[in-house]
Design goal:
Mean pLDDT: 94
Order of helices and strands: HHEHEHEHEHHEEHEEHHHHEHHEH
Largest sheet: 8 strands, parallel
Strand content: 5-15%
Helix content: 40-55%
Bound molecules: S-adenosyl-L-homocysteine
Radius of gyration: 19 Å
Distance between the termini: 19 Å
Low-confidence stretches: none
Number of helices: 15
Oligomer: single chain
């Protein structure tokens, strides 16, 4: 187990020769714990309506220039069929937080996906009511993703105005609740938020461990010009303390996360692929990741799910996207994961497999 000081040391290390040791170590831990398989999950961004005012996010309620959409159940099912047809085991349903997405509508959606495709279902629908989270799990939703974004409560409060009187603790509390009621539970952070320090990144990595999470997705913060954080360069004044929002720092966070939490599923995120279109996906996998979540949101919705800029530059048809991923995996000596690809951390903590 690494100490906070050791984590900070590695986060600040910039010598490529010395960093080889970090990538190698993370790769070894990944291989020994979760193997060579890379699980593919198809993500569908089902709605961009949102009542929240998160200062980093391009689809926040105050951004009036975004065209809003909610996909129909039929449209979503059609995409889920495509995802299943390509041999994937999981569909991820992501959206803004909005009353148009009712509890009953999600129940209907989960049941139909389960009945008609048998895919594992991951939800990423924000801070929803505990009763809803529970009902969805009972209806068959397997996993839930909710990033705590930063382990610094003051920074979180600053970038994440509460819905009512809730504060940061809410997300950590929701994560604990999700685990308690049986979800395979995922979280993660943005790397390089304005005002974020190396110590805080280390705290986030240690918080992943403390919460005993099953999945951890980290991406670089990408400024969106239509958001308060995208316009404000003030916070980046102190270059020593400020963490860069780049691919390299994100890969260091992934590698250290893998070393500290060896059994978790770690995606090589779309945000990482967006800041480094040539190598991002691959370098995520080379620094500890074992999951990729290719985007299957159909046009024109995909361009309206504008949480950060540059996502459309990654656009490929589902078939093209799949062929290129498989080719890349083969090139780096990895295999396509089979089945639902549950997190080893989840299987162990729910005593479905035992430590050898
Ligand atoms: N409403 C859901 C889904 C939000 S989008 C929720 O709040 O959980 C999923 C993730 O995209 C967020 O958790 C955040 O980590 C990431 N994201 C949003 N805006 C971003 C930005 N400007 N740069 C990088 N990542 C961003």
């Amino acid at each position: 187990m690494l100490t906070k000081e050791e984590i900070v040391y590695w986060l600040k290390e910039d010598n490529p020769d010395l960093l080889q040791a970090l990538w190698q170590n993370a790769g070894l831990v990944r291989q020994n714990h979760v193997g060579a398989a890379v699980h593919l999950r198809g993500i569908i961004e089902i709605s961009n309506y949102c009542q929240r005012r998160c200062r980093y996010c391009g689809i926040n309620a105050t951004n009036k220039t975004v065209k809003r959409y909610l996909m129909s159940i039929e449209e979503i099912l059609q995409v889920a069929q495509t995802i299943q047809g390509l041999g994937y085991g999981t569909v991820v349903l992501q959206a803004g937080e909005d009353f148009r997405i009712t509890c009953d509508w999600v129940l209907e959606l989960i049941k139909r996906i389960k009945n008609e495709t048998g895919l594992a279902v991951t939800l990423s629908l924000g801070e929803r009511h505990p009763d809803e989270l529970e009902a969805w799990h009972w209806a068959g939703a397997d996993r839930y993703l909710l990033k705590f974004e930063t382990a610094n409560p003051l920074l979180f409060k600053k970038i994440h105005p509460p819905k009512n009187k809730g504060v940061w603790k809410n997300r950590v509390d929701i994560l604990k609740f999700l685990k308690e009621i049986g979800y395979e539970t995922g979280s993660g952070i943005m790397v390089g938020l304005p005002g974020q320090s190396y110590e805080e990144l280390a705290d986030s990595i240690l918080l992943f461990k403390e919460l005993d999470l099953d999945m951890i997705g980290n991406g670089p913060f990408i400024p969106h010009p239509g958001t308060p954080l995208g316009k404000d360069n003030q916070q980046r004044k102190n270059p020593v303390q400020q963490v860069p929002n780049d691919a390299l720092t994100t890969c260091k966070v992934n590698a250290l996360t893998r070393i500290v939490c060896p059994d978790v599923n770690i995606p090589s995120t779309t945000a990482l692929a967006t800041v480094d279109r040539q190598q991002g996906r691959e370098s995520g996998l080379m620094s500890g990741a074992n999951v990729i979540m290719p985007d299957f949101t159909p046009l024109p919705y995909r361009q309206w799910y504008d949480i950060y800029p540059g996502r459309m530059l990654l656009y490929q048809t589902p078939e093209e996207q799949h062929a290129l991923l498989v080719q890349m995996l083969r090139k780096i000596g990895r295999t396509v994961g089979q089945g639902a690809g549950a997190s080893l951390n989840y299987l162990k903590r729910t005593e479905r497999v035992f430590d050898s």
